[in-house]
Amino acid sequence: MSKKKDPGEPTISQTWPLPAAATLGSSVRARGILLEIRARMPLAQRRALDLRAGLLTLTMPESDAAAFAGAASLVTKALEGIETLPVIPREIEDILSIKTSERHRWLKDGRLPSAGTRTVKLRGRARKITFHVFDPLLVEDLLDSGRIVDWREQDAETAPENRRRAAWTRRLARAAQAPRQAGGEEVELVGWAAFARENLLG
Predict the structure, then answer these.
(1) Is the CA virtual torsion 49, 51, 52, 53 positive or negative?
(2) Weakly modelled stretches of the chain, pLDDT under 70
(3) Largest CB tally within 10 Å, which of 13, 129, 139, 188?
(4) What are the sequence ranges of the domains in the chain?
């Protein structure tokens, strides 16, 4: 177990560069990798590993040389294949410069495929949360392909129609309640026939 650090005690350190293929140019992703590796370390050693200028840096007192060797070996092993670590929501939003609403919409309509889900426990709380994660190869492809721009253009073109559909759906819902509220009288929707012919509800 690592001892409490004495500011005046000599230290030993080792650094590991984070490959661009792993971070995808995102400081949020780099921070996520740091937290992922810290989670695999003994609790008392986690703060000994830090992220500085794109380098993972492990620093411990010289008197903890044996523990340092074990921690360094763990970090080296954890970095093997780190490029395949699934991308979590806040990371994909930073990498692709997208909004949370866009991520939800594209995930729902299938344009942004999920690579599965992950469940984590919130720090200091009993509650757990589950969220979708994404394949880093897919994220890299989206980053390089320019498809995000195309998706936004598609969304801009379909937004007016979606608003009209939503408005008619709300009107239909209100009309369905009207007969009961009016004592059983039927309420006719003006223009409904034309609306139905155009198949705007899909």
Answers:
(1) positive
(2) 1-7, 178-202
(3) 139
(4) 11-83, 89-145, 151-197
